[in-house]
C-alpha cells in the first residue's frame, strides 16, 4: 500500500465487519526483553462496542510495560464498533480521520493493529513478535519533540526537530492523544461503564496524512505547529506523538507530554 496516498483515499470497505476472538492461550506471549535501537508505533484499531477489544488493550499495555518509551501505542476508534464523537451521552472517540486510517489499512475485523506501517493488518496475538522485530532495526533519524500549553490552556504549541542520519524523503505526522478518559466499553457480554481509555487518537495536527519533508543527512530541520484544544479534551491528559514515515514504513517516532 502507498501510505503517501492516504490523504486522498476515500474507498469505504465493503467487507463484512467482525470482532475477532483469540484463544486465551494465544493472546500474549512474553518474550525476553532486548535492547531497543529505535522506537516503534502500534496503531491499535478499536471501538467501545467491540467485546473483544479490551483483550487487545491489555496486550498493548503489557507490551508498553515491557518496552517503555520505545513503544508508542495509539488507540484509533473506527469502524462499526466505535461511536462517533459527541454521538452519545458519555465520552466517545470515533473521528473521520480514524475511519480513513482504518480504510487505508483494510481493517474489517476488530480489534486489529498495524505496527510501524510495515506489518499490514495484524491480530493482537502477533503483536509481541512483530514489535520485537521492528524495535531491533536501526534508526534512520532522531526526533526531538516538545509541546506546551498557552496560559489559558486553549492552544498547544509544538516544536519538532528532525535529525536525519541519512537523506530521507517522507512525511512528518503529528497527532494528539489523550489518556485517562473514563467512559463505557463493551467487554464480552458485559458493558463496563467506568472503563479507562488510554492513548486515544484525538486529532492530527498536520492533516490526515501528514506533511511532506525532504531531509539531508546530518542537517537538522525544525518545524513549529499549533492546534486548538477542543472542549471535550482534558488538557492535563494530552500528549503529542510525532513520526516520520515513507513507503518503507515508520522511520522513527517519539511521544511528548505537554508542559
Structural class: mainly beta
Highest CATH level, the class: Mainly Beta
Uncertain runs:
1-17
Write the H/E string, N to C: EEHEHEEHEEEEEEEEEE
Shape: globular
Query: Would you identify the CATH architecture?
Result: Sandwich
Query: Radius of gyration from the CA trace?
Result: 18 Å
Describe the secondary-structure layout:
Layout (H helix, E strand, L loop, with lengths): L17 E2 L20 E7 L6 H15 L3 E7 L18 H9 L4 E2 L1 E4 L11 H9 L5 E9 L5 E10 L3 E11 L2 E7 L2 E8 L2 E5 L6 E5 L5 E8 L9 E9 L2 E9 L2
Question: What does this entry look like structurally?
Answer:
A hairpin with a 2-residue loop joins strand 14 and strand 15. It is built from three helices and 15 strands. It has a single domain (3-8, 35-257), classed as Sandwich (Immunoglobulin-like). The protein has helices at 53-67, 96-104, 127-135, and strands spanning 18-19, 40-46, 71-77, 109-110, 112-115, 141-149, 155-164, 168-178, 181-187, 190-197, 200-204, 211-215, 221-228, 238-246, 249-257. Residues 1-17 have low confidence and may be disordered. Strands 8, 11, 12, 14 and 15 form a five-stranded antiparallel beta sheet that branches. A three-stranded mixed beta sheet has the order 3-2-5. It has a three-stranded antiparallel beta sheet with strand order 6-7-13, with no helix packed on it. With 259 residues, the protein is mostly beta strands. The protein is globular.
Amino acid at each position: 500500500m502507498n501510505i503517501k496516498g492516504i490523504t486522498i483515499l476515500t474507498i469505504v470497505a465493503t467487507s463484512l465487519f467482525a470482532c475477532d476472538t483469540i484463544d486465551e492461550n494465544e493472546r500474549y506471549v512474553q518474550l525476553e526483553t532486548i535492547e531497543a535501537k529505535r522506537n516503534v508505533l502500534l496503531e491499535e484499531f478499536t471501538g467501545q462496542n467491540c467485546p473483544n477489544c479490551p483483550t487487545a488493550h491489555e496486550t498493548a499495555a503489557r507490551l508498553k510495560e515491557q518496552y517503555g518509551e520505545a513503544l508508542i501505542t495509539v488507540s484509533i476508534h473506527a469502524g462499526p464498533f466505535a461511536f462517533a464523537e459527541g454521538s452519545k451521552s458519555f465520552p466517545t472517540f470515533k473521528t473521520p480521520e480514524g475511519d480513513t486510517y482504518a480504510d487505508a489499512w483494510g481493517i474489517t475485523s476488530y480489534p486489529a493493529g498495524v505496527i510501524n506501517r510495515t506489518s499490514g493488518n495484524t491480530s493482537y496475538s502477533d503483536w509481541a513478535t512483530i514489535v520485537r522485530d521492528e524495535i531491533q532495526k536501526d534508526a534512520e533519524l532522531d526526533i526531538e519533540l516538545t509541546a506546551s500549553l498557552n496560559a489559558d490552556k486553549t492552544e498547544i504549541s509544538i516544536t519538532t526537530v528532525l535529525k536525519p542520519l541519512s537523506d530521507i524523503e517522507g512525511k512528518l505526522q503529528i497527532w494528539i492523544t489523550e489518556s485517562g478518559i473514563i467512559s463505557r466499553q463493551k467487554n464480552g457480554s458485559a458493558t463496563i461503564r467506568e472503563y479507562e481509555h488510554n492513548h486515544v487518537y484525538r486529532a492530527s495536527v498536520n492533516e490526515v496524512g501528514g506533511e511532506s519533508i525532504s531531509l539531508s543527512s546530518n542537517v537538522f530541520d525544525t518545524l513549529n505547529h499549533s492546534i486548538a484544544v477542543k472542549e471535550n479534551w482534558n488538557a492535563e491528559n494530552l500528549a503529542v506523538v510525532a513520526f516520520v514515515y515513507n513507503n518503507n514504513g515508520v522511520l522513527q517516532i517519539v511521544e511528548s507530554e505537554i508542559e
